[in-house]
Design a protein that fits this description.
The structure holds two protein chains of two kinds. By secondary structure, chain A is of the alpha/beta class. Chain A contains twelve helices and 16 strands. Chain B is an alpha+beta fold. The chains are: A alpha/beta, B alpha+beta.
């Protein structure tokens, strides 16, 4: 068993990065992920890692440097939040299009304007279509475990895609909680040696990265990316199985909480799922059949498996910590797509909550379960999309 | 043509593949080299963004018309000899 320590989410991530010991790290500080790179920079300065740390002038440059280092043949990592990820946007597509297994921690934070430094999922959801694998984490333990697994997933021969591990800004990144670390040797052994594919530094076998590809071939390369994403789903499960052997902690595509016989189902990502599980217990004690599904893998989205897990539910409340103004939230759209292709026809409502770090309290969870119970009893829905915890 | 399953992932291809891609047909103006006005300064070779000036044994050779896009930079930079340009641009199809 590893060491149990009380750490912040950011500290857990920095420790994972120290244990992974990537070849290159290029990053630019931004709240609330700053502490990750600050701690990692001290590991570099103190000789705890062999990493070449590239301090750049913006996140656009950070991702560009990551891409260059990855194409050169290195194992590459970075971390960012919010506007930082937004500034990386065009380069995110380059990383995935060139099939470079860069691994990034995304400490989730709201996007401006108005300016806000607190946790919500607009940054990660905004990068949904950039071709990056996304693993979401409820707490520091999951963020640490996901980051170590992300290395294996991203670098897998059937995948070769960049991956981001998401955790909630401040709520997780800055809160201290007790978690268990693997030993340095175990992490080293688990992730293994990085095997570069078509490295630019192999001067005896020169290659071109990023050639011009016109309409005659472009779609074929995009189709490949989709296939790699589909492969990633199986690889995530395979890596999780191996990870369980060394850590004793089991992971799937999502977590099910008291969902087996649930008539009312809740879908919620990240830290709010922790709050929600307590409220599920309270309602279960009162005999109300409510359960929860917490997605872990958001890209690729496991439609079939999610739909099967939710197939017993008569009403589903989907929580979105990111908005699509004038549309449903991103999580709702995935769940609706999953249920549509499954052929079951539950009533589904979307509730946007916690934007800009607005607290998600047990009473908000209770309010949603009460509303879903009312829908279950009467069959009447007032609003399919609404907001939880907003002042009228 | 190859299907998506047959292609190298990420469009990573052999180095220098631009050489096999003929872009000369994009040209609207064609540079013409006037050898008697050439002082062999090789400015055209340095400035050409498409490596379309051939050089053999340190001496300027003919244009590589398969890759010259007719941008005219060489003609612009050419100092010529006694006020006479060694490169002039002529409209294609004339």
């Amino acid at each position: 068993m590893g060491k149990r320590l009380a750490v912040t989410g950011n500290q857990a991530i920095a420790e994972a990065m120290r244990q992974i010991n990537p070849d290159v790290c290029a990053a630019y500080p931004i709240t609330p992920s700053t502490e990750v790179m600050q701690r990692f920079a001290s590991f570099v300065a103190n000789g705890k890692v062999d990493t070449e740390l590239v301090t750049v002038e913006s996140e656009h440059s950070a991702m560009s440097a990551c891409i260059g280092a990855s194409a050169a043949g290195g194992r590459v990592m970075t971390a960012t939040s919010s506007q930082g990820l937004a500034l990386m946007w065009e380069m995110l597509h380059i990383a995935s299009g060139m099939r470079l297994p860069v691994v990034m921690t995304l400490v989730n934070r709201a996007l401006s304007a108005p300016i806000n430094i607190h946790g919500d999922h607009s940054d990660g959801m905004g990068a949904r279509d950039c071709g990056w694998i996304q693993l979401w984490s409820e707490n520091a333990q999951e963020a640490y475990d996901n980051l170590i697994q992300a290395i294996r997933i991203a670098e897998h021969d059937d995948v070769r895609l960049p991956a981001m591990v998401c955790l909630d800004g401040f709520i997780i990144s800055h809160s201290i909680e007790s978690m268990e670390f693997l030993s340095d040797d175990l992490v080293k052994e688990f992730i293994g040696e990085f095997k570069a594919k078509n490295p630019l530094l192999d001067v005896n076998n020169p290659v071109t990265y990023g050639p011009l590809v016109l309409p005659d071939y472009f779609m074929e390369f995009k189709r490949q990316q989709h296939e790699a994403m589909l492969n990633a789903k199986d690889v995530v499960l395979q890596v999780a199985k191996e990870f369980e052997k060394v850590s004793g902690r089991s992971y799937g595509l999502f977590e099910e909480y008291r969902l087996d016989d649930a008539e009312i189902a809740i879908v919620v990502l990240n830290s709010a799922a922790g709050t929600f599980k307590d409220v599920v217990d309270e309602y279960r004690d009162r005999g109300i059949k409510v359960g929860l599904l917490k997605p872990r893998l958001f890209r690729p989205f496991p439609y079939k498996e999610v739909a099967e897990a939710l197939s017993g539910a008569k009403v589903i409340g989907v929580l979105d910590r990111a908005d699509s103004f004038g549309g449903f939230g991103p999580m709702y759209m995935e769940i609706a797509s999953a249920m549509m292709s499954n052929g079951t026809n539950p009533v589904m409502i979307d509730r946007v909550y916690g934007l800009g770090g607005r607290d998600f309290m047990p009473e908000h969870a209770a309010q949603l379960i009460d509303e879903l119970k009312e829908i279950l009893d009467t069959g009447k829905v007032t609003l399919y999309k609404d907001y939880l915890g907003v002042r009228e | 043509m190859k299907g998506w399953k047959e292609l190298e992932i990420g469009a990573i291809t052999e180095a220098g593949s631009a050489d096999s891609y003929n872009t000369g047909s994009w040209r609207a103006f064609r540079p013409r080299w006037i050898e008697e006005n050439c002082i062999q300064c090789l400015f055209c070779w340095i400035y050409c963004p498409d490596s379309a000036i051939t050089v053999n044994d340190g001496k300027r050779g003919e244009f590589d018309y398969n890759h010259c896009k007719g941008c005219g930079i060489c003609a612009m930079e050419c100092p010529g000899k006694k006020g006479k340009k060694a490169i002039v641009m002529e409209e294609e199809g004339k």
